[in-house]
Amino acid sequence: MSGTGTVSPSPRTKPRTVLISGASIAGPALAYWLHRHGFAVTVVERAPALRTGGYKVDIRGAAVEVAERMGILGDIQRASTDMRTGAYVNDDGKRIATLPAAIFSARVGRDDEIMRGDLARILYERTRADVEYVFGDSITSLTERPGEHHQDHREDQDHRDREGHGACGVDVTFERGAPRRFDLAVGADGLHSNVRRLVFGPEEQFVRHLGAYISAFSLPNELGLDREELYHAVPGKLVCVYSSAGAPAAKGMLTFRSPRLACDHRKPEQQLALLDSAFEDVGVAPSEGWTLMPRLLEAARAADDFYFDGMQLIEMDRWSRGRVVLLGDAAHCSSPASGQGTGMALVGAYVLAGELAAAGRAPEEAFARYEEEMRGYVAVNHAQAATFVKEMTADTRRQIRFRHLMMRMLPHLPWKNLVAKKIAEDVQRGANAITLKDHPVPVPVPAPVPVPADGHAAGGGGGPASGGGPASEHAPATQGAPAAGGAPAA
Known about the structure:
By secondary structure, the chain is of the alpha/beta class. It is built from 14 helices and 20 strands. Helix 8 (about 270-280) runs antiparallel to helix 9 (about 295-300). The longest helix has 29 residues, at about 365-390. The radius of gyration is 23 Å and the shape is globular. The two termini are about 25 Å apart.
């Protein structure tokens, strides 16, 4: 299935307008496909510029196929983290069990791994000339309105005739920009989705906490790591430090078990205090954990890309209401433990755009088919996340010692390839739990980029920026072999 067939659009069909909230991964990926299908797309992002921080993320299974259809698979391969090994270290930082990265990462075939920021840049560069980007703004309300109130009554009447009902747009207000109307609106704005809150209600009713928290941040590469990740385990906690290809800085990742904590995701000081509390006793003495730990906590406080959040699932009965639909983590966050958040965002964008194009002027039908295609895929990855999060940390030092022993023995065992295959199969089950349709892609319809009434940042403005703000609204992590106690990625 190449997905490269083209269909010329009717010259009498005006591109439908779509507003996407969120310029991380899901939003720009959807923008790419919608533009290819002839839609006029606007992406609004709360951050003042493209956020290029974050951790490494996996592109596996169906997501590889989507990336190939988008023409970005080569870009991903060139920006690969190219990790070589993963190792567990003892309290003194000495490597006590080392395995090839392929086993730690459970990748097969063309699967790859890339920094979230690099993928964000790739998607942005592929869409910035054709999509209106509005940075530094956020949606404050979305109201579905009947056709008779549209500014252009003739165009509105045409919409009603085509669709068989009166509602033909969503009126949107913004924190900074002037109000605008769009035919459709999409919330691709992550775990703490603003669109989901405005349309479906408070976040709390959709969140299932998996019993752990995760933090990620940049730090100086004092250990001189080169495409290697180091893990250190203490009961109920996992520490990881690594450096990927071409990166001057290292990355840190801290995971700890905990019931749900009172914490505002918009307040880093609260998050840092929780992190300090969880790890304050680790590394204070040689017998109490990796002695690097205090420096890691200092680095977290100094980092400009600090990230902290709970390992959580988003579970919803429906992902759409009227002309508003949710995509990616906003609809079905699978937590970093699944290792599938980025892949699911890419796949969901392809599916949603294809169904919208196929449904013509009946978005509700497209939304229903989008959900029908994605539900099984999401369910498998949610189930795996709930399992993997428990395997990321061990309960006792005895369990940790046993895990280290098994990892030291694995390279010398005659059945090591079978063990590696079993680890990969568990992860690949989620990555390939969907069969992609072959949606014909029309020639994009040339259309001028709309300019907001107040001249507020548009037309791909804002440009990429390094660092700044939270690492990502798609929770970052590092992918390790679950059976070996690694930490799966978003």
